[in-house]
Amino acid sequence: MATEIKGIAASDGIGVAKAYVLVDPDLDFKRYTVTDVQAEILRLQAARLAAIEELKEIKSKALTNLGKETAAVFEAHLTMLNDPDFIKQVEDKIKAESCNAEAAQQDISDQFITIFEGMTDNAYMQERATDVRDVTKRILSHLLQRPLPTLSLIDEPVILVAHDLTPSDTAQLNKHLVKGILVDLGGRTSHSAIMSRTLEIPAIVGTEVATQKIKNNQLVALDGEQGTSTVDPSPAILEKYQEKAQKFAARREAWSKLRQAPTLSKNGQSFMLAANIGTPKDVAAVVQSGAEGIGLFRTEFLYMNSDQLPTEEDQFRAYKDVLEQMAGKPVVIRTMDIGGDKELPYLKLPKEMNPFLGYRAIRISLSRQDIFRTQLRALLRASAFGNLGIMFPMIATLEELRQAKAIFKEEKNRLIESGVAVSDNIKLGMMIEIPNSALFADRFAQEVDFFSIGTNDLIQYTFAADRGNERVSYLYQPYHPALLNLIHHVIEAAHRHNTTVAMCGEMAGDQIAVPLLMGLGLDEFSMSATSVLKTRDLMRQLDTTDLKQLATEVISTCDNGEQVKAEVKQMECKV
């Protein structure tokens, strides 16, 4: 009998195949006293070395399949496995208590996990608990000689069903054989959701019950766009999924024909569709997507994938690479946005009660001008190789913006005086992430060439709700009339001063939000490269005259985001 399982739509597409239920081996063990302590330490060392070799292979696969940024996760795991302090603590426990290696490894790991999970004000450090679990699981599997599942050995089409997917798991996936992903845990911004979109595998997360209700080799049909799946579908249900698959394939084929098309509404209004990237390697997907530029290049990878500050030369090469690959199309590069949930151990940032509201982004740059000036020089030098825009994150006051601009001007003049080629057409902009900067947009607009609205932070600050806290996740409301009104205020203020307005948060590629943002007059939408073509297709079906009326009505008449969403869907049904 068919069983329906619903969850959060995480990655578009239809998948039909037999289930591959990812089940870890039983890694339970008994605690016992050893008589030969040295032999036990040698056994631990052998397991650790085996785990290192295994991780090197996984990292190599990740580099090929998912890129440098994802592969860096496994570099962190390898660093942990080679950490002298981590190793010493486990070995010292074996010596002190004459306990078996499994018990010592688990106890020390649990101590680290407890410390990381206790950092409730730092989401980045909390995530390190997952890394410790992943590494410990791998060591225990070798100690107990119970191999972990090897997803890279899947040799037939499957729907992958899992309680959760670790970075080690996703690095091994073959997108041609994994036809869909069903996960018990997670949301749209979880690791498994992001990776499924990167690999363009249909996915549903947050099902809660998938691993309980699905058995190996059961037939599963999955709709990643609607967030619904059916186990053991009847012939009639299966036929409906197959029809959906054909329609989705036809839509993707139609989208592919829009790669070189201009981004226009039904009534001919022009918009710009750009993509967000994290590393130079991501540019290939941007070019393939037909994006008209890069609206956000997050430079944090240069700082986070290293054990020291990147040099000016390192940064220059990365920025130059991206600008050259984009061949004259606009590229907006954000200056260092470290802090909040992005820590740099070597920078030794102060511990704070609320790091999201603390010492981060432009606040670090202005107080550590040595770091800021190095980045600006690298950007200025790279500007000669393309069409560059620079934007400052987390601006709260005019004084901050003016100080950042003054430092930029000083470094530009110094380079020019020393004979270095610098573009004379660099556009300067700022992120609108703080309600204060949104409310004061009229004054800020007189100081910059463009705004870029970072909705991920703007929403959490507007609703005073940490977006990483599940208990207040209901307050993360991108369609709420109050937020739409704030965005409308920013756009109107900017346009009064001929300042363009982009959006680079998750909301920019949201298919419910896009019609509203078009109606509010947003100039540029920057999103994941995989969302560009379907957004261009949607825009071509919509008349901005109708959308302006829609946006005005929902802001003035709706009480909440659900009402707004219903109004948009009703409008789209008429298209």
UniProtKB/TrEMBL annotation:
Its cofactor is Mg(2+). It catalyses: L-histidyl-[protein] + phosphoenolpyruvate = N(pros)-phospho-L-histidyl-[protein] + pyruvate. The keyword Protease does not apply. Belongs to the PEP-utilizing enzyme family. One of its GO terms (molecular function) is kinase activity. GO terms for cellular component: cytoplasm. SUPFAM superfamilies: Enzyme I of the PEP:sugar phosphotransferase system HPr-binding (sub)domain, Phosphoenolpyruvate/pyruvate domain, Phosphohistidine domain. It comes from Levilactobacillus brevis (Lactobacillus brevis). This is Phosphoenolpyruvate-protein phosphotransferase. Signal peptide: none annotated. InterPro entries: PEP-util_enz_mobile_dom (IPR008279), PEP-utilizing_PTS_enzyme (IPR050499), PEP_util_AS (IPR018274), PEP_util_C (IPR000121), PEP_util_CS (IPR023151), Phosphohistidine_dom_sf (IPR036637), PTS_EI (IPR024692), PTS_EI-like (IPR006318). The keyword Transcription does not apply. Mg(2+) binds at residues 433, 457. One of its GO terms (biological process) is phosphoenolpyruvate-dependent sugar phosphotransferase system. The lineage of its organism: Bacteria, Bacillati, Bacillota, Bacilli, Lactobacillales.
